[in-house]
Design brief:
CATH architecture of one domain: Orthogonal Bundle
Largest sheet: 2 strands, antiparallel
Structural class: mainly alpha
Number of strands: 2
Radius of gyration: 19 Å
CATH superfamily of one domain: Winged helix-like DNA-binding domain superfamily/Winged helix DNA-binding domain
Strand content: 5-15%
Shape: elongated
Number of helices: 6
CATH class of one domain: Mainly Alpha
Distance between the termini: 37 Å
């Protein structure tokens, strides 16, 4: 299973809001121009981020703003807010053969390792805040 693009679109959206909200009205059309997606995608993204308490969106063309401290928003928070993955990271084939010694035992041998790998990825996302990303972005912008 791969993580959907909703995750990276949401991170991009948050960084656009942060970078431009002091000087521009950051609308879904404005964000969509940066992400290069349809504004409807951004509106859906903003609804999820708003439901997670990260942004506020003014009706009409009022624009979006970040309402949570940047240091309190981790990549994991965004990942969860966007329902970035359907189920577990690793999708197991449905019917291993119980008559085969490998098929009968594959879950016992592999499941814990796959769960550990997913937990490691999620723990890495918990280490990075939006504040970290804004600093990285500031060092890249001319």
């Amino acid at each position: 299973m791969k993580i959907t693009s909703r995750f990276t679109v949401a991170v991009h959206t948050l960084l656009v809001i942060y970078n431009f909200s002091a000087t521009k009205k950051v609308t879904s059309d404005f964000i969509a121009a940066s992400v290069q997606v349809n504004p409807v995608v951004i509106r859906r993204t903003l609804l999820s981020l708003k439901a997670a308490g990260m942004v506020d969106v003014k009706a009409g063309s009022g624009g979006a703003s970040i309402v949570k401290d940047l240091g309190d928003i981790t990549l994991y928070d965004v990942y969860k807010a966007m329902n970035s993955m359907d189920g577990d990271m690793f999708h197991f084939h449905e019917n291993p053969n119980p008559a085969c010694p490998v098929g009968r035992n594959i879950h016992a041998v592999l499941d814990a390792h796959l769960a550990d790998a997913q937990a490691a990825m999620e723990n890495e996302l918990k280490k990075v805040t939006l504040l970290d990303l804004t600093k990285d972005l500031a060092s890249k912008i001319d």
